[in-house]
Write a structure and sequence with these properties.
The structure is a single chain. This protein is 51% helix and 7% strand. It has 414 residues and is α/β, with parallel strands linked by helices. The strands form 2 sheets. The chain has a 5-stranded parallel sheet, with helices on both faces. The protein has a two-stranded parallel sheet with strand order 6-7. α6 runs parallel beside α7, α11 packs parallel to α13 and α12 crosses α13. DNA-dependent ATPase that plays important roles in cellular responses to stalled DNA replication processes. One of its GO terms (molecular function) is ATP hydrolysis activity. This is Recombination factor protein RarA, putative ATPase.
Length: 414
């Protein structure tokens, strides 16, 4: 189509494989060069090490870690184009060790016959099992292939340590709104007969949440719905904001950490924001409540003892009620805990006591504290001189702690 010739076209590596006129808009918009690439200035800006590595052609294997739609696949294809390398896209879901051996053999042949390097791009590399990852190791190590792995998960936990040690890890960030806006406006060249209201484009940009693929898919759907794309059409196309939140991944722990720290910082508004993020993403409400029970004891403790009661009741209520109403109960508890006075005296005291157990000699229980249930035990002094009393003078004569720790203070309440 003539209009496609005036816009950013898809990678030549892929136009050989299928007619790009039938490709999704997000595929058509993939950049061919570093100049066309949008975003990730912290690693691809002029003078940055990653950019210099690409420009000089001194390639090494890399792992790209970032949220969906941040441009991981596009970077891999740009590198292949810029360095004129052979590009192999590898599926971590369907490929096996035999496929890896076949592709790496072809890569070695390509070097020997054509002096051409091979870039193997593995999307969702965290889905590879240990055997699959290990199969790449010798070829990454001797330079037979350049491996580019993409993952939305923390590679420290999901990628084998030997493979990480032989690769450079680059962290990608969700795109800024100005980057999404630029991509959206570039893509309009594919729709010369359409009319787009600025409010509609702004809505698509903002609702994409930094995910370029989400924005371009929404624009494509909006263009298919109507020749005149107004705010209502954009709303229908977007449907729901994309929230990147993997219950088993980093975002799960990052958001709950931000939630706890906001309550600890006595900020009810921030606490509600992070709570809303979790509720909208479908986090288990009982998990949230359970963390608040821990928080009530760890961070509030005796500064407001009823906090633990409220948090425990919240967990029970959430379990009985369920979503969506459970969100109200969680908000009630979160704001209560955020506004409560804070004390870590009990928690810090426990940590200090446990540290002494690890580092100091463990003395036997003082005889006065032992339970003398037989005549022999009583004759040996078990429980001698001990009786319940609230008289402090009497208590001063009792050794409640082993002798080597006498005078040690663990609980330091303000």
């Amino acid at each position: 189509m003539k209009k496609a010739n005036n816009s950013v076209q898809t990678d030549n590596l892929f136009s050989q494989n299928f007619n790009t006129s039938f490709a999704p808009l997000a595929e058509k918009m993939r950049p061919k060069t570093l100049k066309d690439y949008v975003g990730q200035r912290h690693i691809l800006g002029k003078g940055k090490p990653f950019r210099r590595m690409i420009e000089t052609g001194n390639l090494q294997s890399v792992i790209l870690w970032g949220p969906p739609g941040s441009g991981k696949t596009s970077i891999a294809r740009v590198i292949a184009n810029h360095t004129k390398s052979h590009f192999e896209e590898f599926s971590a879901v369907t490929a096996g060790v035999a496929d890896i051996r076949r592709i790496t053999k072809e890569a070695i042949d390509r070097i020997e016959l054509n002096k051409q390097r091979t870039i193997i791009f593995v999307d969702e590399i965290h889905r590879f099992n240990k055997a699959q990852q290990d199969a790449f190791l010798p070829f990454v190590e001797n330079g037979s292939i350049i491996l580019i792995g993409a993952t939305t998960e923390n590679p420290s936990f999901e990628v084998n340590a030997p493979l990480i040690s032989r690769s450079q890890v680059f962290v990608l960030q969700a795109l800024e709104n100005k980057d999404i806006d630029l991509l959206v406006k570039r893509s309009l060249t594919y729709y010369p007969k359409h009319e787009f209201e600025p409010s509609a484009l702004k809505y698509i940009t903002e609702k994409s949440n930094g995910d370029a693929r989400t924005a371009l898919n929404a624009l494509e759907l909006a263009a298919n719905l109507s020749k005149k794309v107004d705010f209502k059409v954009a709303e229908d196309a977007v449907q729901q904001k994309a929230i990147y939140y993997d219950k088993k991944g980093d975002s799960h722990y990052d958001v709950i950490s931000a939630f706890i720290k906001s309550m600890r910082g006595s900020d009810p508004d921030a606490s509600l924001h992070w709570l809303a993020r979790m509720v909208k993403a479908g986090e288990d409400p009982v998990f949230i409540a359970r963390r608040m029970v821990i928080f009530a004891s760890e961070d509030i403790s005796n500064a407001l003892p009823t906090a633990l009661v409220v948090a425990t009741s919240t967990m029970q209520a959430v379990h009985m009620v369920g979503i969506p109403e459970a969100g109200i109960i969680l908000a009630h508890c979160a704001t209560y805990l955020a506004l409560a006075p804070k004390s870590r005296a009990s928690y810090n005291g426990l940590i200090a006591a446990m540290r002494d157990i690890d580092e100091k000699r463990i003395e036997p229980v003082p005889l006065q504290l032992r339970n003398g249930v037989t005549n022999l035990m009583k004759d040996l002094g078990y429980g001698k001189g001990y009786k319940w009393t609230d008289e402090r003078e009497f208590q001063k004569g009792i050794d409640f702690i082993p002798k080597n720790l006498k005078g040690r203070k663990y609980y330091k309440a303000k």
